């Protein structure tokens, strides 16, 4: 079988982050080794011997997939991310390492594959092969789930989700997984109903996503990174910011089964001067996180009901190192559906689009 010339990359250029998936062949023959051009060796060495690139590039080593068989080759799959605003630095690096001399196809997805297409041409002398981001997303999710057989399970859920302090992660097998609702939480949110690998539709979305959380947090607290915003949120108390049912009723709204702890109005207490003066930045960060997450949960639940789908899979980089939001989503799904809906999560969170792009390189449909 004729396989694509190395290097094998898949790239997803999102609104906030660029995700790069790289296949490092581990079965290189002596003959191949001899024929391998310097620029290819240099790229392979640079990517696999570092875990950080420049000031903002990160290789997520804990997600690496070892000894993967792909298109008749065996190797390791690496997962790399960097902010989209550093794309020019990436292109410059590609230029310095003579990437274009390899005459490889660079498969890219996400909005940036369109937005930056001409920049790739002029700055890095690279022709992008553009692929649809939702096609790539679905393909990537189904692929990664199908090939992970050992090590930590790709898919998991939270047991006892309504007990936030004691809800533990438990592995879940996604087999015979259709239909499922796929909720991709990046800068914004897309919600897909997936009926089979080639049959899915985008049900709806919301512009209130991970970018909203970070943007509002930067304004409200003066923080500047996602990690910083999450750290603040983990120290805060959203009930100091929100108006709860009990703040209005003095307790539960019994007739319609709304407990006193339910949020009646997100940020509703901030209209009072004395409340504003006593609130901390951490409280504001936490309230922002809870507001955005609950809204996504609420829209997702309506979609699940509407499409008559019981399994909901949440992906996207808003959930990276964000156990708080995952637990809130698990809680919301379970509580408001009386246990009918199950919230599922995937370890490779934000990388599925890039994986789908890599598959588009190797198996052009």
Automatic annotation (TrEMBL):
The molecular function terms in GO held by this entry are:
ATP binding; pantothenate kinase activity
Instruction: Please give the superkingdom of this protein's source.
Output: Eukaryota
Instruction: Give the location in the cell.
Output: Cytoplasm
Q: What class of enzyme is it?
A: transferase
What is this enzyme's EC? 2.7.1.33
Q: What biological processes does GO assign it?
A: coenzyme A biosynthetic process; nervous system development; vasculature development
Q: In which pathway does it act?
A: Cofactor biosynthesis; coenzyme A biosynthesis; CoA from (R)-pantothenate: step 1/5
Q: Which reaction does it catalyse?
A: (R)-pantothenate + ATP = (R)-4'-phosphopantothenate + ADP + H(+)
Please give the SUPFAM superfamilies that the UniProt record associates with this protein.
Actin-like ATPase domain
Q: Which GO terms describe its cellular component?
A: cytosol; nucleus
Keywords from the UniProt entry: ATP-binding, Coenzyme A biosynthesis, Cytoplasm, Kinase, Nucleotide-binding, Transferase
The entry assigns this protein to a family as follows: Belongs to the type II pantothenate kinase family.
Subunit structure as annotated in this protein's UniProt entry: Homodimer.
Q: What does this protein do?
A: Catalyzes the phosphorylation of pantothenate to generate 4'-phosphopantothenate in the first and rate-determining step of coenzyme A (CoA) synthesis.
Protein name as annotated:
Pantothenate kinase 3
């Amino acid at each position: 079988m004729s396989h694509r010339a190395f290097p094998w990359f898949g790239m997803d250029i999102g609104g906030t982050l660029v995700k790069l998936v790289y296949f490092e062949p581990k079965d290189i023959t002596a003959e191949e080794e001899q024929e391998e051009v310097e620029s290819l060796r240099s790229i392979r060495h640079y990517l696999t011997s570092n875990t950080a690139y420049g000031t903002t590039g990160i290789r997520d080593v804990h997600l690496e997939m070892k000894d993967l068989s792909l298109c008749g080759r065996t190797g390791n799959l690496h997962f790399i991310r960097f902010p989209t605003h550093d794309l020019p630095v990436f292109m410059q690096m590609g230029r310095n390492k003579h990437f274009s001399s390899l005459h490889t196809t660079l498969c890219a997805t996400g909005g940036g594959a369109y937005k930056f297409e001409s920049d790739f041409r002029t700055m890095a002398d690279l022709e992008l092969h553009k692929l649809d981001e939702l096609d790539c997303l679905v393909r990537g999710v189904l692929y990664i789930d199908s090939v992970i057989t050992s090590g930590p399970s790709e898919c998991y859920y939270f047991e006892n989700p309504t007990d936030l302090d004691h809800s533990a992660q438990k592995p879940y097998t996604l087999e015979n997984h259709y239909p499922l609702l796929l909720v991709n939480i990046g800068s914004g949110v897309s919600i897909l109903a997936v009926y089979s690998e080639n049959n899915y539709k985008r049900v709806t979305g919301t512009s209130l996503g991970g970018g909203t959380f970070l943007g509002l947090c930067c304004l409200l607290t003066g923080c500047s990174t996602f990690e910083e915003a999450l750290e603040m949120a983990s120290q805060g108390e959203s009930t100091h910011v929100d108006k709860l049912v009990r703040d209005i009723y003095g307790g539960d709204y019994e007739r319609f089964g709304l407990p006193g702890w339910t949020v009646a109005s997100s940020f509703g207490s901030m209209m009072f001067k004395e409340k504003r003066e006593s609130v901390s930045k951490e409280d504001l960060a936490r309230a922002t996180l809870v507001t955005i997450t609950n809204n996504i949960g609420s829209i997702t639940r309506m979609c699940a009901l509407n499409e008559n789908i019981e399994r909901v899979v949440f992906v996207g980089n808003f959930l990276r190192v964000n156990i708080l939001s995952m637990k809130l989503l698990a809680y919301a799904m379970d509580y408001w559906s009386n246990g009918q809906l199950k919230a599922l999560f995937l370890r490779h969170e934000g990388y599925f689009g890039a994986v789908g792009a890599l598959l588009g390189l190797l198996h052009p449909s």
